[in-house]
Write a structure and sequence with these properties.
Elements lengths: L1 H17 L4 E2 L6 E8 L5 H15 L3 H4 E5 L4 E10 L6 E12 L2 E13 L3 E4 L8 H24 L3 H4 L2
Antiparallel strand pairs: 1-2, 2-6, 3-4, 4-5, 5-6, 6-7
């Protein structure tokens, strides 16, 4: 019984963290991370609206980062960045985030990664000039996980308190 519990727990954590892995796409040769997240009983337009709200609350300027927010095609495209202190200097990990929605689910794709700092300039993840690539990718995977966890939590939160103000 204890082994079964341990196996189930391991499987649960494996499933939760699988989507945050940044991989080098064999066709485009670009690094990306993607996953489909289930939101049972949520309509696509509700997930879309809540995701757009989350972007407005979590990016410095939603108007600057949202490149597309099409409610008909149920797609949002965001160009943003994660703050970074890699290599003991302030920098940024730029990315593109594409969110697609269907009833009961959302697909996210992070791509077009690059590292920027005043000392290094802008370096694409695919570049051979990006030193400590494993460290940069690991740091970015953590940022993605934190962002997606926050987005999921926001979408799933109960809005009953807001309607009673």
């Amino acid at each position: 019984m204890k082994q079964l519990f341990t196996l189930c727990l391991f499987a649960l954590f494996s499933i939760n963290t699988f989507g945050q892995n940044i991989i080098n796409d064999s066709i485009s040769q670009k690094y990306e991370a993607h996953q489909i997240i289930e939101f049972d009983s949520f309509k696509a337009d509700v997930i879309f609206t809540k995701a757009k709200e989350w972007i407005a609350l979590n990016y410095k300027s939603a108007q600057d980062v949202i490149q597309l927010a099409d409610k008909e095609s149920l797609k949002i495209i965001v160009k943003g960045n994660f703050s970074s202190t890699l290599f003991m200097k302030q920098g940024f990990i730029s990315h593109t985030l594409v969110l697609d929605f269907k009833d009961g689910k959302m697909r996210y794709t992070y791509s077009n990664f690059s590292y920027y700092s005043s000392g290094s300039g802008n370096i694409d993840f695919e570049s051979k000039n990006l030193g400590f690539k494993k460290s940069v990718i690991k740091s970015t995977e953590k940022d993605i996980k934190d962002s997606i966890d926050s987005l999921k939590k926001y979408i799933l939160q109960n809005d009953n308190k807001k309607s009673d103000w």
